[in-house]
Amino acid sequence: VGLELEPLFQAWSYFRRRKFQQCSDLCSQLLERPPGEQVAGAGRPEMPAGRGAAWSLKTRALTEMVYVDEIDMDQEGIAEMMLDENAIAQVARPGTSLKLPGTSQGGGPSPAVRPVTQSGRPITGFVRPSTQSGRPSTMEQAIKTPRTALTAHPVTSAAGRCVRLGTASMLTNPDGPFINLSRLNLAKYAQKPKLAKALFEYIFHHENDVKNALDLAALATEHAQFKDWWWKVQIGKCYYRLGLYREAEKQFKSALKQQDMVDTILYLAKVYLRLDQPVTALNLFKQGLDRFPGEVTLICGIARIYEEMNNISSAAEYYKDVLKQDNTHVEAIACIGSNHFYSDQPEIALRFYRRLLQMGVYNCQLFNNLGLCCFYAQQYDMTLSSFERALFLAENEEETADVWYNLGHVAVGIGDLSLAYQCFKLTLVNNNNYAEAYNNLAVLEMRKGHIEQARALLQTASSLAPHMYEPHFNFAILSEKVGDLQRSYTAARKSEEAFPGHVDTQQLIQQLRQHFAML
């Protein structure tokens, strides 16, 4: 009996070991006891302060179960994109906007070599929330695109995602919510700084009630006579979640004046990026680096912005700086690897991906990339075994579809067109919205002389991915061959819009214009 821990200390021990469910259950037992009851093994009546400690610890445990770092969670949903009331200049100066990434001339590979997302940016080497959702140009396009987090398509509203995260944790309390927010006297708790902070995080992350969280933060910062920077950051987070970006900016700036923190700089940069001011965000990061030299998150933030602005060469430089500070940074290694791959240096890319493998990253995407690098570096003995491993490790149908699509490319490369046909068909079995597979199947059908099937496949591809130039160009060539010049011209113009630098498209448009002039 002498070795038995006091229950509150046991709960704290569970919390430190990240066993949050056990911690929460033990705190519930403590809170259910009458205030004057003896605590087993402690030998003294439990004080009300102990109840306060158990209550605070339970709120923290419940928060930690559903905690999502606000810095990395940045998903723009359809509501945020299409119903955005912030007016932004339609014709931005080149290199100053994320909405017109093509305006920045960063010397990166063209869309002929490196695929682009529907927002016009080259695909990145690492999946992040900000790379998930492209900006659809029309409401119709936003609604008809599938909303999975694995594509460059819009996901559902960010607020909705947080609500789902919050409600999932209600299962921890079959009797209903732990704290009834509607009956809470926020002014009373705001005067107890230690309790107030735990309560704020519970309301913000677990209950996802941004309005009540904002009220509590406003009362608490008033009680602290506006001298506590932590509360200012929390108010800024609430304003950001509510879409009040300028108010959020003021709070973060005020917090930075009081206490220089890397996190606050990252929050403020998030506000600027949402307001489509990447140059301001870059300057903020660079000023931050003067005060926090060698801070990996700031260097990485600069690299991400350059990558989103299509300035690939600058992004690669900053990712290399990240690796000088932290040589196991997965994102930097993956992005440099993909940059080398698309710059026609598969052998160097292979070294970076092998490094990831040595670090213990073991997933479908990595083996998929290793397979492609081996194929283009002419190490054919490793190619198929890498793809086999990738298929084995695929966690869902979208990942399986990617592997089959790349196997189709390998088959085209070695000239086995029937295998390629099978691979692209398997891609579509796993993911029916795979525009690239429709396009490549159409090319194979054209080679067989099946004009109608090819035309139908190309129309499907161009409706699924209007940002890709290949289906439009192929459709233009096909229509021109069968004598449908008007359709050919329309498709060629769409191809030119998607990729202005494509020489073959321009030549085709010139030929068609000469035809029309003769008529």
From TrEMBL:
Entries under CDD domains matching the protein: TTC8_N
GO BP terms in the entry: non-motile cilium assembly
Endpoints of the signal sequence: none
Biased composition (Polar residues): 129-138
Keywords recorded for this protein, A-Z: TPR repeat
TPR repeat residues: 435-468
Protein name (record): TTC8 protein
Gene from which the chain derives: Ttc8
Classification via Pfam families: TPR_8
